[in-house]
Amino acid sequence: MGAKLDILQKLKQDLLLWQGYKPAQASVSERIGLGEIEQAFPFGVFPRKAIHEFICLSPDQAAATDGFISGLLSVLMADGAGCLWIGTRRRLFPSSLAAFDVAPDRIIFIDVKTEKDVLWIMEEALRCDGLAAVVAEVDGLSLVDSRRLQLAVEKGGIPGLIIRKDARRMVSTVSNTRWQISPLPSDLEGEMPGVGFPRWQVELLKVRSGSPGSWTLEWQGDGFVQQPETRKETVAPSRLGNIG
Amino acid sequence: MQKRFISIWFRQLLADWQLIRRPELAEVPFVFAAPGHGRMLVTAVSAKALQSGVEPGMRSADAKAICPGLEVLDDKPGRARKLLKGLGEWCVRYSPIVAIDEFRLDGLMLEVSGCAHLWGGERGYLKEIVSRLASKGYAVRLAIADTPGAAWAVARFGKVTPLIRTGGHIEALQPLPPESLRLEEGTLAKLRKLGFYQVKSFMHMPRSVLRRRFGEGFLLRLAQALGTEDELLVPLQLPVPFRERLACLEPIRTRTAIEMAITTMLEALCRRMQTEGKGLRSGTLTGHRLDGKIVQVTIGTSAASHSVSHLFKLFQLKIEQIRPGLGIELFELEAQKTDVVDVPQEALWSAQPGLNSKSLLQLIDRVTGKVGPGAVHRYLPLPHHWPERSAGLARSITDVRLTDWNTDKPRPTELLARPEPVQVMAIIPDHPPRFFVYKGEHHSIVKADGPERIEREWWLDEGEHRDYYRLEDDKGRRYWLYRSGHQDPGQGYQWFIHGFFA
Predict the structure, then answer these.
(1) What domains lie within chain B, and their CATH numbers?
(2) Domains within chain A, CATH numbers bracketed
(3) Residue range A193-216, pLDDT digits in tens
(4) Does ipTM top 0.85?
(5) Which end of chain B has fewer CB atoms surrounding its CB within 10 Å, N or C?
(6) How many angstroms away from the CA of A17 is the closest CA of chain B?
(7) What are residue B285's DSSP bridge partners?
């Protein structure tokens, strides 16, 4: 019985290797600053050669998603590389990124008129090796579009983050991970008055070859800090979990 | 190398042009006339009218008397120059230096040194020009010689051959009349009076004698024809230092063929730019179509580049805009704007990543090429507290920031381009809102920070100051609201929502 389990384990590891994931001994430089969440990824390493999809069901989730992504960018852009932020109706306030340890002048914003252009630019950008990440805001994403992006990201090697602002139109897409970030009431120590650090419910709805989960995170000025679970119910995970 | 010049003489430029436009005039004698000295003077004559004895310079009334049924058309000043300019631009296919013949505005002058062999020698070259122009409907005479003056003379007065071999122009000039030297009417009359009917009769006279009798202008014209004095041609198109031409054996219509043409020209152009350490900033691809129309596409780069693959990708985005029509027979590629390219040192390991990475610059070029300029934005901090002015657009990707980004005050992740009014319940005077209604939704506030007063910069615009509050509602959503100005006696405060915190 034990031998069988060993063989299974070995096969799983081999499969992951063939799919392009790094083996377990992740060096410190590959940490993304997400703490325990990183254990949900294959081999415990944030997949950089991947498409990450963030779905937003409401405008407040969009703001939370922007914040969470900015936190990720602070690590991804730590080596001085630039980042592309593509969208059609961008509301992101460049000056605010400085609070997430990102230099806003190293982000190049591209504001175009059509979603088609957004996807074209993203596909081109994913093949470009001088970038840390590519972020795109889209409304709808079809299976074919996501497949194209997936192929591009496999060729290139920089992460592509897609914010789907109108995720009510549910379609199955090809992506390595699917996230949903919702705002949570902030908490100040000792019942102090005022608004505390931004706090989110981070739900990993889908992760290829990993284990999905839900965590409470806070951005404390220089990094993510995980908080004990405060809220059990999530936004209809059963409805979202079976997609893709 | 001995310079060679072609002079093209359009015998009836305006008449031919009119016949091309209105073929029904072929059977009718017609002239162009323009008002001069209070009467209508004939300026151009058709071949049919010429046969009946009508000549340029006549009064149109006299011409009508000589030639019954003569049609008199209005001549517009400057029309001949306009026509010649168009024809000259078309003639660029034969030589890069084409000038309008300024003496009588009835011809073109081409410098063709080193061009003729492309058409299989000078005889074939001349034949090609004559037959192409004839097929369009223009009757021309032309000649090729070592000097523009000699070519001009032989084209108009030569009786033996239009092809004057190298060094043969002096001999060819000898039997020609003095009119062939482009002289003024007064000088010509003097020459005729003195019995000089051929160039050879005064060609070898001492210069001092000629100068005394006919003036400096005469000597200059003579010297220009003989080649002892240089003549400056003012080309219609100033030659661009980096330009490539590609004449196609057969008219090109397909995308693949256009791509091949672009690659061929780019390779040659980039090789030249590379040796001179230059790179392209803006370039134009011109296609001369079979039907005489011209198609053009232009590209630009954000940093000087002489990489064939990169420039080709930029052109590739524009190929859809090229309408080949019946086919393109000549391509021209010009680098209108070039810059010194800083050649980076080859790195053993990949260099420090940053915004000036080559592949990123190339990506941005492709994006601007596809969606047009104005789509790419990069922000730099500005010394303003007013939120809308706290960041400004950078002019280039290499601009460095002069001040640091402000992080001491909370700023929302998403900012509305235009603040939207909201209904708020707040305790006067300075308490944060208890609840507010935005887009029909009721938000009751649990936590709040503020106010943070931001004064309007009165030297930039007028209006009220703003008192900003950071609010968190019972569901954990965070907002940025502000109270505008002071309390209005009748109405209370005006509140606006301006952003969303993460």
Answers:
(1) 244-340 (3.30.1490.100), 414-500 (no CATH)
(2) 55-92+100-184+196-232 (3.40.50.300)
(3) 888 889 999 999 888 888 899 999
(4) no
(5) N
(6) 25
(7) B297, B333
